[in-house]
Structure formats: C-alpha cells, structure tokens
Amino acid sequence: MSAFDDQSPGRCRRGFGSARSRIGVTLSHATAQPGVPASVNAGPAPQSTHTVRVEPAGIDIAVRVSETLFDAAWREGYEWPTICLGQALCTACHVVIRTEDENNVSPIVEPDERSAIRRVSRRLYRGDTTGVRLACQMRVKADIVVEQSRFEGERRADA
Fold it and tell me: Is residue 74 within 8 Å of 85, Cβ to Cβ?
C-alpha cells in the first residue's frame, strides 16, 4: 500500500502531508520534483517560443525555450531527417544557421556535437563549421533562419 492516496494526488496518508507542508514541498501532480517549489510543478505554464524558418522548405517551426529544433519539429508533426533519433551521432539533422547572429542559439557544449559538426563540415562544407549545428542539440534563443537541404516539410504518418 502506498503512502499516497490515489484519489487525491496532492495529499498523503499516515501524516506525511503535514511534514511536507512544513518544509514547503507539495505534490501537485505525478511529475512533481522534490525541492522544486509547487508553483513550478503546478502544471503547464505558458511558454515563450521562437520561430525557426527552415529553408528551402519555407516552413516555420515554433520552438519552445526548453526544447531543441529537432524536438519542436517532431512535436509539430514534421518528419525531420535523422538516423540516430537525436543522439548527436548521424549528422542527418544538421542545419546551417543563415541568420547573421549565431548568438541566437545555445552554445555547443557537448563534445559529441562538436565532433559531429567537424565531420559533416569536412564532408559537405570544405571544413567550414560556420553556422553548422545539429538540430537535435540546438536550442533557440531568438527567431532565426536555418537551411536544411533534406527537409521538405513532410509530415509524419502518426501526426
């Protein structure tokens, strides 16, 4: 038997509820995280988004602050090119940032992404890594334009 009452997810049995209240932790839903204020766990809050224009397909994708371009495309029902399903291995998802300010995307922090960018740049761009990023790793800070030559705006069958 669980210490939590199934019919009331925010309440505990056996007196645990009052102890949790004293330390400021409440369980507002199943994904509540210990030590995170209840207001953060209270449910989906409005999220700001940035628009990524994908050329030459001419598709606009709304990317939430917390997600990658690859994840946003999937969420919106697009079939984004990939082989490794977002593991920074295959480089099929790579884009070239066409917006002049590369600071509008998250910095490269993973060695796997840096290595993959070098590989795809040697193969396709004569070693020039300027603006090359993996869509499965890139988070967006402002509206940008990218080029992805394999993406034609196809929708997933399950979308």
Answer: no
